[in-house]
Design a protein that fits this description.
8 helices, Naphthalene 1,2-dioxygenase Alpha Subunit, Chain A, domain 1, binds FE2/S2 (inorganic) cluster, Rieske Iron-sulfur Protein, 2 domains, seven-stranded antiparallel sheet
């Protein structure tokens, strides 16, 4: 599925170019059904390459990160070995299964290895079992066979993915497909992490993702914030400039910008003195060649909204990069984590501009978060059985279609 919108088709709807999606209302029961959630766990998340985090979380040999991944029913230990390679393990001791790095939530640090706090077994950064306390007291024990249980791990452009299958059906490269080949050209190395937000939200992971993967809501929910910078007189509802839906499940939508929008004086200052690193100040994008983004070279482009299947939003532009994880916890709970990256800045002016961008994003994200639990709580009534989706919500439609395809695939 890769159908660029040609000039002749420009008056037609995106959704009609992907007839497999249909145009019918989409059932909502998949957001409230515990049985469907368990199928998502077993047939989708446990069998798919999942983006876990960026490699900037483990910058040096010895750095480690622990993520509790409820949907995989495990705790994942990532460690960068002395050889510089990042490996993933089940964070579970081979003696009696205790967490080698104990506790809930996210953990990180730097170490020469790991010591299980229960009976003191030790492992090196490569996961090898190094020492058993009172080894002679065991029976025919072979340390070489009792390293930490590995999880398949792959890195694409600094993005660390894991796959919980014993033998993945496909390589990470195959799973990323054409989407990965195209977006690989984006200069992620020019950006630095400036902000992290996270929260446990009482809604299904798809409800959360949906709210961030369409822009039909901009004119209402962001009517007093982002709307003026994105929607214009000629495109009042922010119709998408480009849409690509990929067979592997990923998707990409190019959002418009309002080039007539006049940013607030503080934003204009930030742009003037810090090279345009701002969320709400868009200029003619056809004059700026941005590798791996704005594929059609549109002049009124703001950013590309990508979804890395199944559960991560990746926004790229020359002004900012965002990742948002929507980790399923239960049928009506999601662990949401946002990471905001901005162009690397070493000047004072650049730092101030970054603060300006962070404040703008915080305000708009706060608006986005409002609907999530409001939607989920009333869905439980069962009164609303279907979603009515317009053409601008094609990404939402594609999301349900691809999840359902996996759920219904033969074992
Ligand atoms: S469970 Fe880890 S040493 Fe016993
Ligand atoms: Fe939004």
């Amino acid at each position: 599925m890769n159908h660029p919108r040609s000039a002749e088709l420009s008056s037609q709807k995106w959704t009609l170019q992907y007839p497999e999606l249909g145009t019918d209302p989409v059932p909502h029961s998949v957001n409230t059904s515990a049985a469907y959630f368990e199928k998502e766990r077993e047939k989708l998340f446990k069998r798919t390459w999942l983006f876990l985090c960026r490699d900037d979380e483990l910058p040096r040999p010895g750095c480690y990160v622990v993520k509790q991944v409820a949907i995989l029913e495990t705790s994942v230990l990532l460690a960068r070995g002395n050889d510089g390679i990042i490996r993933a393990f089940h964070n579970s001791c081979r003696h009696r299964g205790n967490k080698v790095v104990m506790g809930g939530g996210e953990k990180s640090g730097e170490s020469k290895g790991f010591i299980c706090g229960f009976h003191g077994w030790t492992y090196d950064l490569q996961g090898k079992l190094k020492n058993i306390v009172d080894e002679e007291d065991f029976f025919d024990i072979d340390k070489s066979k009792l390293g930490l249980k590995p999880i398949h791990c792959g890195v694409w452009r600094g993005f660390i993915f894991i796959n919980a299958m014993d033998t993945p059906h496909e390589t990470l490269e195959e799973a990323l497909g054409q989407w990965g080949r195209d977006v690989a050209a984006f200069p992620f190395e020019n950006f630095e992490l400036v902000n992290v937000y996270s929260a446990n939200i009482r809604c299904n992971w798809k409800i959360a993702l949906d709210a961030f993967q369409e822009n039909y809501h901009v004119q209402t929910l962001h009517g007093r914030s982002a709307a003026a910078a994105l929607n214009s007189k000629s495109n009042p509802f922010g119709h998408l400039l480009d849409v690509r839906l990929f067979p592997e499940g990923h998707r990409q939508a190019a959002l418009p910008a309002n080039l007539s929008f006049e940013p607030a004086p503080a934003v204009q200052m930030a742009v003037k003195y810090a090279g345009g690193a701002n969320v709400y100040a868009y200029s003619d994008s056809s004059q700026r060649k941005i590798s791996g983004a704005n594929r059609t070279g549109s002049s009124d482009w703001s950013f590309d909204l990508n979804v890395i299947f199944p559960h991560v939003q990746l926004i790229v532009s020359d002004a900012f990069v965002l990742t948002q994880h929507y980790w399923p916890v239960s049928v009506d709970e999601t662990y949401w984590e946002l990471r905001q990256y901005l162009p690397i800045s070493t000047s004072v002016a650049g730092r101030i501009a970054q603060q300006n961008s962070q404040a703008a994003l915080r305000d708009v994200i706060r608006e986005d978060l409002v609907t999530l639990e409001n939607t989920q709580t009333v869905l439980r009534s069962g009164a609303i059985t279907h979603m009515q989706l317009c053409d601008s919500e094609i990404t939402v439609r594609h999301s349900y279609y691809k999840v359902d395809e996996r759920i219904n695939a033969p074992d």
